[in-house]
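Tutorial, part two.
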Amino acid sequence: MSQNHASDVTIATSSDYSRKVGYIFEERYMWHDPWIISWSPLLQPFQHWEHAETKRRLHNLLVVSKLYDKLVHLKGFKSASKSDIELVHTSRHIEDIQLRSSRMEGGTADESTTTFSQYAYEIASLAVGGAMHAVEKVMQKEVDCAYVLCRPPGHHAITDAGMGFCLFNNIAIAAKYLLKIYPETIQKIAIVDYDVHHGNGTEEIFYNDPNVLFISIHQDSNFPINSGHIHDIGGNDAEGFNINIPLPPGSGSGAYQYVFEKVVTPALHSFQPDFILVSSGFDASYADPLSAMILSSDDFRFMASSLIQSSNELCHGRIVFMHEGGYSESYVPFCGAAVIEAMLGLEDKEDIIQDPFLTEVTGWGGQGLQGHQKDVVDQVAQLQYL
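Running the prediction step on this input gives:
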């Protein structure tokens, strides 16, 4: 792909929204098809968690609610080339995915749960292409910010392997692309990852890079096991540029708000990035089958609003959200819509989608900041001199 300057955009017809929010979606993303899983002869096979339905339902909610009409639809982008993907990944890994996905039965990236069907390479390289296209359109000022609703996700993919449902690290490649193509304008990038699972791949890729601040807010030792420790603060040349916030299971609104107050916002202001990228996973929601957190759509709205405000204050509003995990078919759509509403600057009750589950989740006990959660966040803040 390298640079794709095609001006293929479809702009929302309404002129009431001054903030131009780009939106990447491609039907082929929905054709990525991990295998059905059965881990035991006594376990009836079940659908893979990372299936298309959660993302398709989010897209459909945007359409039927008319939020879709308020977005700038970014079209005409191409698949990333091998050289684009090599900004992060080894040739061996890329060629391995390409070979396995050429087979009728597809393959697996990690001999575990990162399975894929035929033509997965083409879809995964298109996801990378969408990520690169989104940041390019922000740099060209065709949009102010963007949301990339792509599959497969990326933040677990390490340099030489896929894992955790991820084949290529979309957000890391987009960051490397920005640093390479815009060396005068983009010298420092912050990546904030609020997916409930530790962004181990992104951490590995940038662990020794002082030009990239990586912040991961995740459930303590959920996935990968024994990853995302507080004391993993970056390599010798980049100490303090890797920030892990491993929250205890059961963390809710109070814990996440305290994380932003004590760590995320101060760290961003200290680092002064030229661009903010966000790994936008919704698996910290109260309804997710792969976590034990209790967030609501309003909490994702809060995090998105905070990050957008920081981008406005620090880097001329340059921010792109890239979809990662989230496995509740019923609740991911409302969480994703809340983020996009925040990007659009919608706040009035009559302008936002009403979450039918919000009263339930906000009424759960334990939503306030708990002492053991505060201790973790305070420890991170002290370690990072925030």
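The two ends are 39 Å apart (CA to CA). In part three we will examine how such features are distributed along the chain.
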